[in-house]
Amino acid sequence: MKEKDMKLIKDKEFLRNIAYQIDLMNTLGGGVSETYVNIKKYKRGAVISISAASVRPDLFKVVLNNNQLTLLSVLQSELSAEIAAPMFNRTFILPPQVDLGRIEAVHENGELQVRLPYYESTGKPREIEIKEL
User: Fold this and answer.
1) What is the CA radius of gyration of the chain?
2) Within a domain: residue 131?
3) pLDDT per position as a tens digit, 38-56
4) Distance between CA atoms of 117 and 42, rounded to whole angstroms?
5) In which domain, by residue range, is 42 found?
6) What does the pLDDT look like over 57-109, one tens digit per residue?
7) Has residue 18 got a pLDDT over 80?
8) SS3 call for 59
9) Which of 27, 42, 62, 67 could disulfide-link to 85, CB 3.0 to 4.6 Å?
């Protein structure tokens, strides 16, 4: 191999693009791109982690509809806007203790994390005022 060819292989952007194109063609050809889902529960909430090889953060979508959380990604061809392959689609029914207004999604170290905080409890009982209509 020539020294010029070796530099091409060391180019991280080239490697990222070629891996992306290979993954897209593999998926369109009937292959499978592995997507891993891990759910961890903690005292104050839960975290859904999704790892999908070579899927850029902007290709993930997180949609909340009432208590249904849908996570999906579509692999879009960089060569043509008409070529796309669904990579992942999963819907979760959220339990009532999840504070829907505080859900957040972050992409970190090649992994999408959807953080589901639970309602904070004051631990003290509170009397509810009865309104007269």
Assistant:
1) 21
2) no
3) 999 999 999 999 987 667 7
4) 9
5) 3-117
6) 888 889 999 999 999 887 776 777 777 777 788 999 999 999 999 999 999 88
7) no
8) helix
9) 27
Q: Where are the beta strands (DSSP E) in 14-110?
A: 35-41, 45-52, 60-65, 68-76, 84-93, 104-108
Pairing of strands 68-76, 60-65: antiparallel
Does some domain include residue 126?
no
pTM (two decimals): 0.63
Task: Tell me whether strands 35-41 and 60-65 are parallel, antiparallel or unpaired.
Answer: unpaired
- Residue 104 burial (CB < 10 Å; 0-12/13-18/19+)? exposed
Distance CA 67, CA 3 (A): 56
Q: Which token pair is 131?
A: 């309104």
Instruction: Please give the Cα distance from 72 to 89 (Å, whole number).
Output: 4
Total structural domains within the chain: 1
Q: Is residue 128 part of a domain?
A: no
Contact predicate 33/75, CB 8 Å:
yes
Q: Which DSSP state fits 57? A: G
- Domain presence at residue 49: yes
